[in-house]
TrEMBL record:
<comment type="function">
    <text>This enzyme catalyzes the hydrolysis of the N-terminal peptide bond of an N-acetylated peptide to generate an N-acetylated amino acid and a peptide with a free N-terminus. It preferentially cleaves off Ac-Ala, Ac-Met and Ac-Ser. Also, involved in the degradation of oxidized and glycated proteins.</text>
</comment>
<dbReference type="InterPro" id="IPR045550">
    <property type="entry name" value="AARE_N"/>
</dbReference>
<comment type="similarity">
    <text>Belongs to the peptidase S9C family.</text>
</comment>
<keyword id="KW-0378">Hydrolase</keyword>
<dbReference type="GO" id="GO:0008242">
    <property type="term" value="F:omega peptidase activity"/>
</dbReference>
<dbReference type="InterPro" id="IPR011042">
    <property type="entry name" value="6-blade_b-propeller_TolB-like"/>
</dbReference>
<feature type="domain" description="Acylamino-acid-releasing enzyme N-terminal">
    <location>
        <begin position="22"/>
        <end position="448"/>
    </location>
</feature>
<dbReference type="Pfam" id="PF19283">
    <property type="entry name" value="APEH_N"/>
</dbReference>
<dbReference type="InterPro" id="IPR029058">
    <property type="entry name" value="AB_hydrolase_fold"/>
</dbReference>
<keyword id="KW-0007">Acetylation</keyword>
<protein>
    <recommendedName>
        <fullName>Acylamino-acid-releasing enzyme</fullName>
        <ecNumber>3.4.19.1</ecNumber>
    </recommendedName>
</protein>
<comment type="subunit">
    <text>Homotetramer.</text>
</comment>
<dbReference type="Pfam" id="PF00326">
    <property type="entry name" value="Peptidase_S9"/>
</dbReference>
<dbReference type="InterPro" id="IPR002471">
    <property type="entry name" value="Pept_S9_AS"/>
</dbReference>
<keyword id="KW-0963">Cytoplasm</keyword>
<dbReference type="GO" id="GO:0005737">
    <property type="term" value="C:cytoplasm"/>
</dbReference>
<dbReference type="InterPro" id="IPR001375">
    <property type="entry name" value="Peptidase_S9_cat"/>
</dbReference>
């Protein structure tokens, strides 16, 4: 075999184990400025990381702290202050604004029962540990990014968080009554009260939840802990037709501002779906009066209060339509109660190259100290950059576009000290800090690395740009181009042509930015080239690019990927007899389309939780609107099955071409997938079996759409690599 590909399973596993060690940065907080007696200033940087532990079969979360000496505008010295500490059981944590206290929501199992505690730490003492489970004021605390929050009041006397609404105990009509209580004591009184609150016939009522990644999260409520009084109250006044989340304290702690998502007539999947009808609200703590701050005709997210507590920026996009779109950055003036658009949607990038805002979540803090600028990390074509927005002028400046690092993520900013994670396809995440230059200055940010990582010299990467041929131009949205990341081994032996693995992203409205990808890095170290295609419809290229795809899935996206592959194969670097295709979700949809529409071209196919039949998916997915929109139809909540629509859906689905498939297919399915139900993969699996096409199906219990648990991810990789090797060199 004239190749340089690693094929021995033990060697592959060793490579995977080596590269899976690199942790990812999930959070950073900047502590208060401390001035030493000699006038030196320093701040503590608290960071949280996540790392795969293949032996414990879990993602391990740990923290590490650093100290940064500065003069409020530049870093003088920095270094780690201690080693890493695993943080197990901590659902949420947050230092108080002064840094004097820390709140922790902790989950632990006591005598076989899961319980949740809200802890208040000060210096070296755990001052309070409130058993939230025993209080029975609400259900489980929300720890997710969609609804969850843990916020200190400005006064540091109250804590705000989100939990599941308390549901009365349900019992059968035929359950025997508890024996008459002999004596009335506190305990008995509690049991008696609970008996009264118990309802019959409600044990099996269906409670819809918010879908994939939010299973069991149905009715969030805003909760406030009065730290002095040790009592928890559920905020009144939130309208019954909305689910609140992403809450924070209003100026002066007079009340709470939050995002409310409409959940009538029913809930649709919310994860990766920022296009759900939602508004900003304010609920007054005293009277419980609730006020809607934004129009209610759009979808909003990530409200962030300015340091001077005068304005709130937030992201806004249209309701329904493509699930990820170009957002507007809007602002609500707390005192005039007026909203304004700071940065509008970008249909086509202009000369300045700014392609629009595609972030679905702003960083925890994103304001400059002067309350004039906002920092946003978001995709700009195939990179992810830090953008500085001047909220007075709406001007957008990239702080990182000249960098050779492909992906920058703002973790936090406090008093203009930015904490970022940055990485590239050949460089795992690094932790850096740097001061935001003064407003209107032309200075570049001076970045200081707190935690470095070495560039992998064996990996080379580049961004390729493609212009579709005239016959594939979109007449409604003409002149659009698209890109792909090409990741390949730096050293290639003479005479060796590289095998190529083609990977279209899912979404379809998402994007591959030049970030660190574990799978692509290991495949590259094994000797494969990997082509990660950002076909038309990807985010980061303007709203027109996104709008060009709905109604054209299964043709435009498929042709874009094939055009990119055939363009790359025109060179003599790659072996066109050794091309595989691999994708997940909509990327799996494309992988299955490609082997059906180009029979024999791909020698192996891997498909993770693929969409294989839009017509059969619409009735079982948590995002039925996605099926309608991507098939080219408008969605309304009262829409009903229509044979003509189903016919169109079927015609745009990979299952339509399954009779042409010759390529061996590996399917990997998550048992708990609410997004693309596993029956989609099974439908395709059976069709291949019936045609006697080599097919293998891996079924991962306890895994959902992302198949991101350590077992599924590591086992999945090994099987993917060996499947490709088996069929590219048979
Ligand atoms: C961009 C995005 O995620 N859109 C959502 C509506 C979504 O879940 N789409 C799926 C069909 C999908 O393709 N998801 C991709 C991102 C995946 O890899 O899971």
């Amino acid at each position: 075999m004239n190749s340089q590909v690693v094929t021995n399973p033990e060697d592959i596993a060793r490579l995977y184990r080596e590269l899976s060690l690199f942790p990812s940065l999930s959070r950073a907080d900047v502590g208060p400025v401390v001035t030493s007696q000699y006038g030196g200033k320093y701040s503590n940087i608290y960071t949280e990381w996540s790392q795969r532990d293949l032996d414990r079969n879990e993602n391990v979360n740990f923290c590490r702290q650093y100290i940064v000496f500065h003069d409020d505008k530049s870093v003088v010295y920095s270094g780690a202050s201690g080693n890493c500490t695993e943080i197990k059981g901590e659902l949420q944590s947050k230092d108080s604004p002064s840094g004097d206290m820390k709140a922790v929501v902790r989950e632990c199992t006591i005598k076989g029962e899961d319980k949740q505690f809200l802890e208040i730490w000060s210096k070296n003492i755990k001052m309070k540990s409130i058993n939230l489970t025993a209080l029975k004021k609400h259900g489980k605390v929300y720890e997710d990014d969609q609804f969850g929050c843990l916020v200190w009041s400005h006064s540091e006397t109250h804590l705000l968080y989100v939990a599941e609404r308390k549901r009365p105990k349900a019992k059968s009509f035929f359950q025997s009554e508890s024996p008459e209580l002999s004596s009335i004591g506190d305990e008995e009184e509690t049991v008696r009260r609970e008996e009264k609150e118990t309802v019959k016939g409600e044990q099996f009522v269906f409670h819809e939840d918010w879908g994939e990644g939010l299973v069991g999260k149905s009715c969030p409520v805003l909760c406030v802990l009065d730290i002095e009084g040790d009592n928890v109250s559920v905020l009144e006044g939130v309208p019954d037709n909305i689910s609140p989340g992403q809450a924070f304290w209003a100026p002066g702690d007079t009340g709470v501002v939050f995002v409310g998502w409409l959940h009538e007539p029913f809930r649709l999947g919310l994860k990766f779906c920022p296009n759900r009808s939602s508004s900003l609200y304010y609920v007054d703590l005293t009277g419980g009066k609730c006020e809607q701050l934004t129009s209610g005709t759009s979808a909003v997210s990530s409200p962030r209060l300015s340091p001077d507590q005068c304005r709130i920026v937030y992201l806004e996009c249209a309701v329904f339509g493509p699930h990820m779109q170009c957002s507007r950055l809007c602002m609500f003036d707390w005192y005039t109660k007026k909203t304004s658009v700071v940065v509008d949607m970008v249909n086509r990038p202009g000369e300045d190259g700014f392609t629009g805002i595609y972030s679905s979540q702003l960083s925890r803090q994103c304001w400059s100290a002067d309350s004039q600028r906002v920092i946003i990390s978001c995709p700009q074509r195939s990179r992810k950059d830090l953008l500085m927005v001047d909220t007075s002028t709406g001007s957008v400046t990239s702080l990182t576009s000249k960098s050779d690092v492909g992906s920058w993520c703002l973790l936090n900013i406090e008093r203009d000290l930015m904490v970022v994670s940055c990485s590239s396809p050949n460089c795992p995440p690094r932790l850096r800090v740097g001061f935001l230059p003064p407003r209107d200055s032309q200075e570049e940010v001076v970045w200081v690395t707190l935690e470095d990582s070495q560039i992998l010299p064996e990996i080379d990467w580049q961004i390729l740009t493609f212009t579709p041929p005239p016959e594939q131009d979109n007449s409604q949205y003409p002149g659009l181009d698209f890109e792909a990341l090409l990741i390949k081994p730096k050293e290639v032996k003479d005479g060796v042509k590289l095998p190529l693995i083609v990977t279209p992203h899912g979404g379809p409205h998402s994007v591959f930015v030049a970030d660190w990808f574990l799978y692509s890095s290991v495949l590259c170290r094994m000797g494969f080239a990997v082509l990660m295609v950002n076909y038309r419809g990807s985010t980061g290229y303007g709203q027109d690019n996104i709008l060009s795809l709905p109604g054209n899935v299964g043709t435009q996206d498929v042709k874009d990927v094939q055009f990119a592959v055939e363009s790359v194969l025109k060179g003599d670097e790659f072996d066109m007899q050794k091309v595989a295709v691999s994708g997940g979700s909509h990327g799996g949809f494309l992988a299955c389309h490609l082997i059906g529409q180009y029979p024999g071209f791909y020698k192996a196919c891997v498909s993770r939780n693929p969409v294989t039949n839009l017509a059969s998916m619409i009735g079982s997915t948590d995002i039925p609107d996605w099926c309608m929109v991507e098939a080219g139809f408008d969605y309304t909540t009262d829409c009903l099955p229509d044979p003509a629509v189903w016919e169109q859906m079927l015609n745009k689905s990979p299952i339509r071409y399954v009779t042409q498939v010759q390529t061996p297919v590996l399917l990997t399915l998550g048992e708990d997938d609410k997004r693309v139900p596993s029956k989609q993969g099974i439908e395709y699996y059976r069709a291949l079996q019936a045609k006697k096409v080599p097919v293998r199906l891996l079924w991962y219990p306890g895994n959902n759409h992302s198949l991101s648990k350590v077992d599924a991810e590591s086992d999945g990789f090994m099987n993917i690599a060996l499947w490709i090797i088996q069929h590219l060199w048979k």
